[in-house]
Amino acid sequence: MDKITKQNALNAHTWVGVFLSVLLFLVCLSGTVAVFHLEFERWEQPHIEEMKNVSPDVVEKAMDTFLAQNTQESHHLYVVFPTSDIPRLVVENDHAAYFADSEGNLLEQESVSFTEMLVNLHLYLNLPQSWGMILVSALGAIICTLVVTGIIAHKRIAKDAFKLRRGGNGQQAQIDLHNRFGLWAAPFHLVIGITGAYFGMAGIILVVVASLNYEGDRDAVIQKIFTPDPVLAPQEGKPAIGRAFAQMETLAPEKSPIFLTVHEVGEPEQFIEIYAKAPNRMIYAEGYRFDTAGNFIGVAGYEFGEWGKQLVWAMYRLHFGDFAGLTSKWLYFVLGVMLTMLCVSGMEIWLSKKAHPPLASRLWYSTVWGSVSALALTAVADMFFTGSLIAVFWCLMLLNTGITVGVKSLTKPIWLLISGLSVMVLLIAYAAVHQSATLSVASLQLNIPMVVYVVWSVYRANTLIKRAKNAETQIETDASNSAPQSAQEKRVNA
């Protein structure tokens, strides 16, 4: 490939990354953390009873109790089974959700405000959903562009694949690390970018496909992807969800039921659908359909449908790494950290080449490490505050920006230290609120990584502070050593 093409690719890579750095960073950071969104839901209410399985009678009892207490009109009823990725029993409608114990007694209302804010930040950047989804999807396409232009711009991919130079002022090591992360994880980053772009562009794709192949009939396209509702004789009566659930052991003993939905509650077209995770398949779930009396009708056909249908139904698991339990989630988390660090290192390389403009550098560090602090303190606020967490998070981000502009001493290590201390405050508040439940599995699976982050951030900040002091001392020493020599040279010359 000629030098002009490589240079053009490098210019595009640089300026796209610089102008969209903040948005890309926030989407990547929130997405990396949101890989564990189901674990965060458990973490928010760690004292709830957890179980491995549940009987049909318990499911029926829990729903009956829920309906007796929640009489508002609803088009859907849901049961989340403990065989899903959350080992808890949840019954809900379109308005409220309650946990139930292993005997079918209702416990307390589900409250996952922080998790919802975090996922909303990743999916919509906390903007109105229609606009936010389009923007975030466009950023997914931008990620793909950055991956491709980065590879094209790389001058010696094969030769430098494992090069990591150390020493000097650290700029070369940062460039090498940026290039290695971008190269090694490129397939993952492309998957994330493509699937992320799909979620927002699905509506546009639907219109285009309908116009080209179905004379503008969008419903015809939807029915190709999402199996139409079954055509049944008019249904009436209470849905027999216990009877339907009991049949899953015979119909699909190898599958894990995730959740149950009663569609069109109280209407003549009412029917029950149980979604079950198919082993060794990337699709989200196969749907098993039953009439109101609990008689089996058939499957939705996602597991062995056309490849396009299977691909669409695999998008969720591909994007969030939810296909091999915690193993795939931790893999996605590590690769997500690499993608997030690409945003950070790319911007820092650009700042370094511009001789680190003081205000621009401080604002970037407040965005990177200040956002971690803002997320931690938002989680703290959620324990004592019932208002909008989106407002809390962005107020904290604005506060970080204002303080950064006014206080010149807020350098990178200081912001890194602030982020670690904020997470420590979160852990202390969490222990105070949840007490003995802090030692439950639901708590520890996230609290332990948070403790690791606190230790690392404090250690890393201390290292950077010492390094900066040593550099200043070295500069002063060099200056003092050169001054007498200059004077002596002047005397010799005289």
Describe this structure in words.
This protein is an alpha+beta fold. The protein has helices at 3-19, 21-34, 37-44, 56-69, 113-124, 129-153, 171-184, 186-213, 218-225, 241-246, 248-251, 307-312, 315-320, 325-353, 358-384, 389-406, 412-434, 441-493, and strands at 76-80, 89-93, 97-100, 106-109, 256-263, 271-277, 286-290, 296-299. A hairpin with a 5-residue loop joins strand 7 and strand 8. The radius of gyration is 27 Å and the shape is globular.
Mean pLDDT: 89
Query: What would you report as the Rg, rounded to the nearest angstrom?
Result: 27 Å
The poorly predicted ranges are: 490-494
Broad structural category: alpha+beta
Quickly count the helices: 18
The residue fraction in helices comes out at 55-70%
The overall number of domains is: 3
| Distance, first to last CA | 59 Å
Give the strand content: 5-15%
The succession of helices and strands, N to C, reads HHHHEEEEHHHHHHHEEEEHHHHHHH
Q: In this structure, how is the largest beta sheet organized?
A: 8 strands, antiparallel
Keywords: Kinase, Membrane, Transferase, Transmembrane, Transmembrane helix
InterPro entries: PepSY-ass_TM
GO molecular function, one term: kinase activity
Transmembrane segments: 12-36, 131-153, 188-212, 330-351, 363-381, 387-407, 414-433, 439-459
What descriptive keywords fit this protein?
494 residues, alpha+beta, 3 domains, eight-stranded antiparallel sheet, 18 helices, 9% strand, globular, disordered C terminus
Topology:
Blueprint: H1 3-19, H2 21-34, H3 37-44, H4 56-69, E1 76-80, E2 89-93, E3 97-100, E4 106-109, H5 113-124, H6 129-153, H7 171-184, H8 186-213, H9 218-225, H10 241-246, H11 248-251, E5 256-263, E6 271-277, E7 286-290, E8 296-299, H12 307-312, H13 315-320, H14 325-353, H15 358-384, H16 389-406, H17 412-434, H18 441-493
Antiparallel strand pairs: 1-2, 1-5, 2-3, 3-4, 5-6, 6-7, 7-8
Helix pairs in contact: 1-6, 2-5, 2-14, 3-5, 3-18, 6-8, 7-14, 8-9, 14-15, 15-16, 15-17, 17-18
Protein name: Aspartate kinase
Transmembrane segments: 12-36, 131-153, 188-212, 330-351, 363-381, 387-407, 414-433, 439-459
GO molecular function: kinase activity
